[in-house]
Design goal:
Oligomer: heterodimer
Distance between the termini of chain B: 41 Å
Strand content of chain B: over 45%
Order of helices and strands of chain B: EEEEEEEEEEEE
Structural class of chain A: mainly beta
CATH superfamily of chain A: Immunoglobulins
Largest interface: A-B, 25 and 20 residues
CATH topology of chain B: Immunoglobulin-like
Number of strands of chain B: 12
Largest sheet of chain B: 6 strands, mixed
CATH architecture of chain A: Sandwich
Shape of chain B: globular
Number of domains of chain A: 1
Radius of gyration of chain B: 13 Å
Helix content of chain A: under 10%
Number of domains of chain B: 1
Helix content of chain B: under 10%
Number of strands of chain A: 11
Shape of chain A: globular
Strand content of chain A: over 45%
Distance between the termini of chain A: 34 Å
Structural class of chain B: mainly beta
CATH class of chain A: Mainly Beta
CATH topology of chain A: Immunoglobulin-like
Chain lengths: ~110, ~110
């Protein structure tokens, strides 16, 4: 049974057209993360939520925003996608203890035309 | 800031042969270390993790890793590789109790 679900799996958008990626979890985890993974690179953390507390990485562009309306759902909004934002976007969740495992979703592949 | 180095971008091994993937970390205190595997177009799956205790850690799918503080290493091993092990492998260190910092990854190819 899927525990971290990402929709859609593939998203195509146009340069400058806002896009929203969705993540949901059935694990009731406190922490939710968004990573960006460009081709042949390591995943890079954009931001994370600990419950409702939002934590932005210092080098995450302002173009990237996130919302977490409840425990189960978290959204990644890209306000004006550029060609350089084409990547795989990975959502992950973790329980409240730092020793808990991070569980990753299958990712959303974003293409910017 | 913490960093992780995976010196091998690609490794090719024959099916049935042993495997070792290298990982070196840079971290001042006791590191929390992880190995994840990613199949093409998929998310990451945890193979194993080290927090403390026994320096030889057993994971899923027959993988193990050994933490060596003196060498700042956390190498992943498997005694006999299967074709289904072909994937990309990421070593990671936890930073500030919350954030994973990943190495650049090693792509494993298995030849029959």
């Amino acid at each position: 049974d899927a525990m971290v679900i990402q929709n859609p799996r593939y998203q195509v958008t146009q340069f400058g057209k806002p896009v929203t990626l969705s993540c949901s979890q059935t694990l009731n985890h406190n922490v939710m993360y968004w990573y960006q993974q460009k081709s042949s690179q390591a995943p890079k953390l954009l931001f994370h939520y600990y419950d409702k507390d939002f934590n932005n990485e210092a080098d995450t562009p302002d173009n990237f925003q996130s919302r977490r309306p409840n425990t189960s759902f978290c959204f990644l909004d890209i306000r004006s996608p550029g060609l350089g934002d084409a990547a795989m976007y990975l959502c992950a969740t973790r329980g409240g203890d730092f020793t808990d495992t991070q569980y990753f979703g299958p990712g959303t592949r974003l293409t910017v035309l | 800031a913490q960093s992780v180095t995976q010196p091998d971008i690609h490794i090719t091994v024959s099916e049935g042969a042993s495997l070792e993937l290298r990982c070196n970390y840079s971290y001042g205190a006791t590191p929390y270390l992880f190995w994840y595997v990613q199949s093409p177009g998929q998310g990451l799956q945890l193979l194993l993790k080290y927090f403390s205790g026994d320096t030889l850690v057993q994971g899923i799918k027959g993988f193990e890793a050994e933490f060596k503080r003196s060498q700042s290493s956390f190498n992943l091993r498997k005694p006999s590789v299967h074709w289904s092990d072909a994937a990309e492998y990421f070593c990671a260190v936890m930073e500030y109790g919350n954030k994973l910092v990943f190495g650049a990854g090693t792509i494993l190819r298995v030849k029959s």
